[in-house]
UniProtKB/TrEMBL annotation:
The keyword rRNA processing does not apply. GO terms for cellular component: cytosolic [4Fe-4S] assembly targeting complex. Belongs to the MIP18 family. The gene is fam96b. Pfam families: FeS_assembly_P. It comes from Nothobranchius furzeri. This is Cytosolic iron-sulfur assembly component 2B. Component of the CIA complex. Component of the MMXD complex, which includes CIAO1, ERCC2, CIAO2B, MMS19 and SLC25A5. Interacts with CIAO1, ERCC2 and MMS19; the interactions are direct. Interacts with KIF4A; the interaction facilitates the transfer of Fe-S clusters to KIF4A to ensure proper localization of KIF4A to the mitotic machinery. Interacts with CCDC117; the interaction is direct. Residues 39-114 form the MIP18 family-like domain. Keywords: Chromosome partition. SUPFAM superfamilies: Fe-S cluster assembly (FSCA) domain-like (SSF117916).
C-alpha cells in the first residue's frame, strides 16, 4: 500500500494458521492418480497475500477450508471467501487472485467458481457476477497493471 493512503481495515483480526498437511508417498508419486480434495485446494489458496496487509488470506480468515468444495468426479471447485469488512474495495481483486491461482494450478478440466460468502459484503452480487464472467476475468488479466497486482498477491512472501 502506498504512503499517505488510508487503509480500509487498519487493524484486522489475525487468525492462527492451520498446520501444513504432510505429503504421503502416493501423493508425491506422479504415476499414482490421486483425487483433488478440499484440503488440497485450501493449501493452494491459503498463502495468497492480502493486497492491503502483509498477511495471508488464511491469517485474515478470508479463506477457510470449510468454505472450499471440490467434486473431483464432476471436475468442479467452489471457493467462498469472506472479505474482512463489508465494504472492502479489494474484494474483486482478492477473488481474482484466488481464481487465477486455481486456474494456474489445476488441470483444465476443472470448472472453478469463486464467490463471496453470502451476506458478508455490500456488493457481493456485483463482485460475484464479475468473477463468474470468463470474458471479464480474461480482460482483467490483459491489463498489465492489474496482472502485476495479482502476481504480487500470488508471490511468495519473504518472512
Amino acid at each position: 500500500m502506498s504512503r499517505g493512503v488510508q487503509m480500509e481495515n487498519a487493524n484486522p483480526v489475525i487468525f492462527q494458521r492451520c498446520r501444513d498437511r504432510p505429503l504421503t508417498a502416493s501423493e508425491e508419486d506422479e504415476d499414482v492418480h490421486d483425487l483433488i480434495d478440499d484440503r488440497e485446494i485450501f493449501d493452494l489458496i491459503r498463502s495468497i497475500n492480502d493486497p492491503e496487509h502483509p498477511l495471508s488470506l488464511e491469517e485474515l480468515n478470508v479463506v477457510e477450508q470449510v468454505r472450499v468444495k471440490v467434486n473431483d468426479a464432476e471436475s468442479t471447485v467452489g471457493v467462498e471467501f469472506t472479505p474482512t469488512i463489508p465494504h472492502c474495495s479489494m474484494a474483486t481483486l482478492i477473488g481474482l487472485s484466488i481464481k487465477v491461482k486455481l486456474l494456474r494450478s489445476l488441470p483444465d478440466r476443472f470448472k472453478i467458481d469463486v464467490h463471496i460468502t453470502p451476506g458478508t459484503h455490500a456488493s457481493e452480487e456485483a463482485v460475484n457476477k464479475q468473477l463468474a464472467d470468463k470474458e471479464r476475468v480474461a480482460a482483467a488479466l490483459e491489463n498489465s497493471s492489474l496482472l502485476e497486482v495479482v502476481n504480487q498477491c500470488l508471490s511468495s512472501r519473504n518472512i
